[in-house]
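Let us begin with a simple case.
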Amino acid sequence: MFRIESDRARFREIVRGRVRQDLRKYLMTGELIGRAGNTAVSIPLPQIELPRFTFGENPKGKGGSGDGDGAESQDGEATEGDGVGGAGDQAGAHILEVDVDLDELAEMLGDELQLPNIEPRGVKELDSTGGRYNGVRRHGPDSLRHFRRSFKNALLRTIASGAYDPTAPRVVATRDDFRYRMRTACPEPDSSAVVFHMMDVSGSMGREQKEIVRIKAFWIDTWLRSQYKNLEVVYIVHDAVARVVDQHTFFHLRESGGTKISSAYELCLKQISERYRPEDWNIYPFHYSDGDNWSARDTELCVSMLRDEILPRVNQFCYGQVKSAHGSGQFKKDLDGALGTEDVLVTANINDRQDVPEAIRTFLGRGR
C-alpha cells in the first residue's frame, strides 16, 4: 500500500513538472478553459507514457506476433503485412488527461510569472461562522465522544460509590458518564473580493480579440481565487450601452453597435455602490477594449469617473487594450496621459496571444 502511494506521489511530481514546463503554452491558448471545473482543470499531456507490464517472452531465436514483412498464404488470401493503409500493429499515441487542482495551477502561475501574494487594501473582510470543538456536553453522536472526560466521570463515580478496588481496578462507564465534544461558534474573518470583467463587444471587436480576453480572464480568476477565500465575478458587456450578463453570454455575444465606454464604468460604479461596499470588499475591475470610443467627450467622462469615483474605491483598476484591425488604440493613450501617475491604474497592450503572459504579470505583479 505504501509502495503504491509512493509511486503515485512520484507520478504526480512528473506530471507537475511537465505542466510547469508547458505552462507558457497554456497561458497563450484556450485549451484549458473548456476543461476547467470548480476545483480542478483537466490537462492533456500526450508526451507522458504510462508504465505497463508485458507478460511472457518470445521463444529464443524467434520473433513475436506480427514480426516480419508478411507473405501470401497458401489459399491465396492476404496475410498481415499485405495492402496499403490497413490496420497496423503498433500502439497509438494516447493523450493522458491529468487533473490538476486550481490552487496548484495558481501556484505554478505565481512561480512562472513571479507574482507576489496580494495584500488586501485596508480592512476588507467579511465575518463567516467558524468555530472549534473545544466545549463539552452530555449528549451527542458517538463519533464526538470525549473518551478522557467520559472515563474521568466514570472513575469519579466509581470511587464515590465505594465500588473502586485499587488491587483490582475496574471502571465501567454508563450513559450518564459519557461526555461529547461540542463546537463553540466564533466569527472568523474571511477575506472576500469581487472581480468586474468589462468587455467592449462593439463591431470592431472580433472573435480573436474575445478569445484573448477569455484566456486572460481565466488566469486572472485562477490567481485571485487562490488569494481570497470568497471571490465573486461580475461580467459586464458594452457597446453603446452596458449590461450585466452571465459568463457564457460574456464570451459568446456577437459583436454589434458602436462604443460608449462610459456606460460600462457607470454600471460598474452602480454595482459597487449597491452591492459591494469598499469597506467590505476587495474590488478588481478589469476592462478590455480595442481602444475605440465614440467621442473625445465620452473619454473625458471616463477619465473623470475613474479619478473621482472608481479609483478611490478599488484595489486596482486594470485596462487591457487588445489590438484589432479596426481599433484605433487611442483610449489607452488618453488614460495614460490623464491618469498615468495613479498607482491604482494599470494599463497594458495585448497585440496578440504572445503578449498574454506579460499582460497578466503587469496586472497582477503589484500585489494589490
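The second case is a distinct protein. As before, the sequence precedes its C-alpha cells.
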Amino acid sequence: MKQWRFWLGIAISLVCLALVLWNVDYREILDALKRADHVWLIAASVPYVSTIASKVFRWRLLFPDEHQPLSRRNLFSALMISYAFNTILPARLGELARAYVVGETERVSKSLALSTIVVEKVLDVLTLLLFLILLLPFVPLPSWVQRTALIMTPLFLGLFALILALTYQRGSTLRLASSVLKRIPHLDADQVTKSLDSALGGFDVLRSPRRNALLWGWSFVVWATGALFILFVMYAFQIDAPPSAAVLLLCVTSLGMTVPSSPGYIGVYHWLVVSTLLIFNVNRASALSFAFALHALTFLPLTLAGIFFMIRENYSLQTIQQEALVSSAEKPSTVDR
C-alpha cells in the first residue's frame, strides 16, 4: 500500500464528512431514521440480491468456453471476499483478491481471472455512462457530473477499443511482446509471454456476438436492479425525488468510488449522496439520514458475507493480501493444470 494514497484518502474522507455534517440538526437525522418504512426496506432486498446474482452470472460468461462450467458458488464466494477487502482495507486490493480466490477454487489462471475482471469493470463504467446519457432529457446534470462523464467516456471507450484490438490481434500482440521481451536481459521472456497469453484469453469471449449481447444484457440488469434497490430505499425514507434521482445516485456513487477515500468509502460516499439529492431540493437532514442508511445497507451485508466466506474457506485477510500480490506475477505453470 502506498502511504501517500492512504493518507490522501483519509484526508478526502474527513473533508467530505465535515461538509455533510456541517450545520445539520442531528435530531432531524435520527427522526428520519426512525420513520423509515420497513416494508420498503424488506422489498429492497429483492433487487439487492438480484444485482449480486446478475454479477455472478455475467462474470461466469466472461470466462472462455474451455474453462466452463465454473461453479457459481465459488464465483459468488470470491466476489463477496473482494467486497470485504475493498470495504475493510485501505489499499483497494479486492479485485486482486477476487482473482486469487477464484484461481485457487476453480484452478484457472489468476491472470486470466484478472483479465475477466478488467473487462467487467469496463462494461460497468460504460453502462453507467450510458445511463447518464439517458438521464440528460430528464435531469439537469450538475457541471461536476458532466465534467466527469466527459472525461471518463472517451477514456473507457478507448480502453474497450484497445481490448477489442488485442482480442482480434492476439497472435500479433504476443509475437511483438515476445520480440521486445527477449531483448531485456535476465528476463524469462517465454514465461512472461505465456502469462500475457493467459491474460489475453480473458478477452476472447468478446469475439462472439452472442456472448457480447449477453454480457451487455447482464450489465444492464446489474445496474437496473441496482437503481431499483436505491429507489426502494428512497421510498422507505420518504425521499421526495423522482425515480431518475435513483439512477443518478447509482451513477454518481458508483463512479465516485474511484476517488481516494478511507476504508468503506466513509465520507466520500455520503457527500456524493447528499450532493446529488440536493439537486432535487431534498431536505439536507433527510438526505443525510438516507445516505447513512444507504451506505450501511449497501456495504454491511457484503462485508459480513465476505468475512463469512473467508472464515469458511480458512482464509485470512493477511494471507489473501500477500498471495494476491504474489500471484499477480505468478508463473503460468502453477495454475494452468
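The chain has one domain: 9-334. The CA atoms of residues 129 and 153 lie 7 Å apart.
Keep these points in mind for the review questions at the end of the chapter.
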